[in-house]
Amino acid sequence: MCGPDALRQGMGILAAAALMIGCSTARPAGTSDSVEAVLAASHDRVIAAVIQVLTEGGYEVSEEDRQDQALSTGYRQEIASPWDWLVVHRFGTGRSRVDATILPESETTTRLIIDVAYEGKDSLFFSWSPYETPLPQSAANQLRLVRNALGLL
Question: How far apart are CA 153 and CA 149, in angstroms?
Fold first, then answer.
């Protein structure tokens, strides 16, 4: 039989479990993800390589987003399937965007600054907040891909 003491003890265990589950879903702190490098390539080659890398990475780069020394992308959705609403509702989702500043140092060298902003939300009912950038979208990985595209290994 189940007595009042056992019922109180069971309710206490349920309350403690609910509290632990609530604490385990704390959001990680967002950090600025930026990298800067001087590349041994002309300004035009670096711009073409950055556009190629971002386009292959799923970012849309339009002529409006491209200025003389800066390039910005829109947000890239990280999940794309017919069941997005179910996945997002249960697990949340993330999105990222890239800002690249391309400054000519000389005729043969170019300074490249890449900033990646990553945001996420825990479910459909939460708002976007800054998260730590995952490795595939990180600024360091974007720089590595640009160097590969330029053949600068």
Answer: 10
SS3 100: strand
Whether 94 and 138 have beta carbons less than 8 Å apart is answered as no
For residue 23, which of 15, 34, 12 has the smallest C-alpha distance? 15
**Model pTM?**
0.71
pLDDT in tens, 30-75: 557 999 999 999 999 999 999 999 999 988 887 766 777 888 888 8
Coil, helix or strand for 95? Answer: strand
Contacts for 72-77: CB closer than 8 Å, 24+ residues apart: 72/97, 72/98, 72/99, 72/100, 73/97, 73/98, 73/99, 75/119, 76/137
Percent residues over pLDDT 70 in the chain: 67
